[in-house]
């Protein structure tokens, strides 16, 4: 069931424009204020679903209709990319019915025809985002936008698609959102929803509230100086500028009344008075609170750690600065973490030399296992990265205040103009110490399946939490990955609105190095065996991580869409046994 062949269709991958379909907007491009419907509670509104009219397109010049195939051309469970002349659509046949949606994943533009179709949704082959084939709505992450949905009709055994040209061009659709009612009569120091942190979890929480028709005040605050951005790109494409990797443009926050306070740090939370106290003394009352502060990178504790040109990659400016300083110079990276390895890969073409120092004997050993780790290490060595394994840094030496050498415990001295530290991170939850909010021994905020803490009205999401993972019998885990942060934010928002929604998503992550990606789904912590299919030397393989007799995770390189297939099987609650993959 894992290796069923997909329908091969020739495709072209085009990077999506940073535009969103305005199909579901009123003519002025803003959510129409006429569709608020009071549901009985004060200042809490719900959007009406608009009935699908026979012609949902306002402008007939913007519409294209084309015959795309014969009804018998597609079997049930098949997908095909079809061309409508001014753009493409994904045609899907499931349970005898045809559906048509955008053909590119709005996240990074992956061709969805190469993804996995299962029970009314299509899953992206690259990073695992899921879309409902009937509505186009995003159901699992990463990414923020949904797919445009197109009308399908059958006439004389032929399949026709009717679509808006603009939607065919943009290949994305932002869900309808509410706006804030009467922002002007708010007290500046009180908000209905306060979100601490402006990463994926915080942003998705705010957007979900608006999508669900919540029209009261939402305030996000962040220590960062930027609006929410695509953090995984900091180590994968290090010279990206903040505006290039912004998750939403400035106007978006204005349009939907999501207030973002930048460079604002919360120093304490007073749960009795429902107040957040900021470092500068400013206080803000809240009704509902989301803690989504993420992680703080660990620093080195060795001698000379304060010399110049030693970096943790925390913000776009850090990444940009490292690239500038590393060009034609000697770089030392401490820690073969995801961040450390991605930075090493990115800098090899730019730096004179790249050295990597790591305590373990093989990179990613705990995560991907020894064999996959070795294959990755070989790929790095063939790209001129020098490894110093099973040792650590004892001293950073300077000349005129700037880094000159990195001294290892093994006695080896490495020339270094720049040092990047990627030795892990700790949850950014110090400010909650005396709050009464339940925090475990490692500093993680403990939440239930609804992302609720032990304090009513206080939720937490993202890298700073442990939550019960359905996939592993509700074991409390920390999953510090981009897709999971999105889902946490969504679940928290739905439960702020009392939807009673529990999290059940399958973790999905990826890493990109030298133009190659490793995709991974599941939760492999504590695996006791790895079953490998394919060829590790050729970097074309799939690795199944098993615990006793059960597959708990999968990783692959050049083997799409296997990881998305496994993720769909696990998401359906099915168990994959070791014998199924051997």
UniProtKB/TrEMBL annotation:
Keyword Cytoplasm, does the record have it? no
Alphabetically, the GO molecular function entries are: 2 iron, 2 sulfur cluster binding; metal ion binding; oxidoreductase activity, acting on NAD(P)H
Write down the PROSITE patterns for this protein, in alphabetical order: RIESKE
Q: Where does the protein principally reside?
A: mitochondrion
Q: Which GO terms describe its biological process?
A: execution phase of apoptosis
Q: Could you list this entry's UniProt keywords, alphabetically sorted.
A: 2Fe-2S, Apoptosis, Electron transport, FAD, Flavoprotein, Iron, Iron-sulfur, Metal-binding, Mitochondrion, Oxidoreductase, Transport
GO CC annotation terms, alphabetical: mitochondrion
Q: Which InterPro entries match?
A: FAD-oxidoreductase/Apoptosis, FAD/NAD-bd_sf, FAD/NAD-binding_dom, FAD/NAD-linked_Rdtase_dimer_sf, Reductase_C, Rieske_2Fe-2S, Rieske_2Fe-2S_sf
Q: Where in the cell is it found?
A: Mitochondrion
Q: What Pfam family is a match, any one?
A: Rieske
Domain (Rieske) spans 66-161
Which protein family is named in the record? Belongs to the FAD-dependent oxidoreductase family.
**Function per UniProt:** Induces apoptosis through a caspase dependent pathway. Reduces mitochondrial membrane potential.
The protein here is known as Apoptosis-inducing factor 3
Organism, by scientific name, is Nyctibius bracteatus (Rufous potoo)
Organism classification, top ranks? Eukaryota, Metazoa, Chordata, Craniata, Vertebrata
| Gene symbol of the encoding locus | Aifm3
